[in-house]
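Hello,

Our lab assistant flagged a job as stuck in the queue for most of the afternoon. It eventually completed. Since we weren't sure the result was trustworthy after the delay, we are filing this so someone can double-check. Below is the sequence as submitted and the structure that was eventually returned. Let us know if re-running is recommended.
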Amino acid sequence: MRQITLALFAAFLATAALAEEAVDIAPLMQDVCAHCHGETGDASSRMYPRLAAQNRDYLEKQLLNFRDGTRVSDIMNGMAAELSDAQIAALAEFYSTQPAEKHRVRSSKRALEAVGFYIYHEGNEYTQIPPCADCHGEFAAGDTNLPRLAGQHRHYVVEQLMAFEDRTRTNDSAIMHSIAKNLTELEINAVALYVSGLVEGGAE
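-- returned structure --
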């Protein structure tokens, strides 16, 4: 498996090198990034976000924000502090091209998932919550500036929504603050559960 991953790094570097010079991110990824995010960005621990198939420009922005302190993280601010612009661009490009893995939702959580489906696609007119799909897309793939939510760790999505709610995360769209503050704890967990079970083309 390790040999396959190293070969993947080598192939990526050969094809994605900038015209001026190749940026060798393989040692950085093996020695630093992989410890938390996995070798191809499909983090197994719920503590860390899955980066595989995440949108490139969004990833690049987050790394830049971690580096300059606009987005606060006890771990990532230090990790990103010494990254160059070229390294950040190369990391974002690599992870964005990795396939997202499928992750199952436990059958015991199907009722909660159904609530998440409704909020994600219909919103909640009684508390002025618009459908998440309006911005993040029908299958939570996001776009250039918005994150892919499909297949993301449920607990990580919950943490980020709560961070938007209490304004400890302020580096992204201000609209998320107004939306998150109107979400109940049940709705937050339901939406997070729903998107965690999405794959390309819809729910698994």
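-- support follow-up --
The delay was a queue issue, not a problem with the job. The result is valid. The CA atoms of residues 125 and 131 lie 9 Å apart. Residues 16-20 have pLDDT under 50 and may be disordered.
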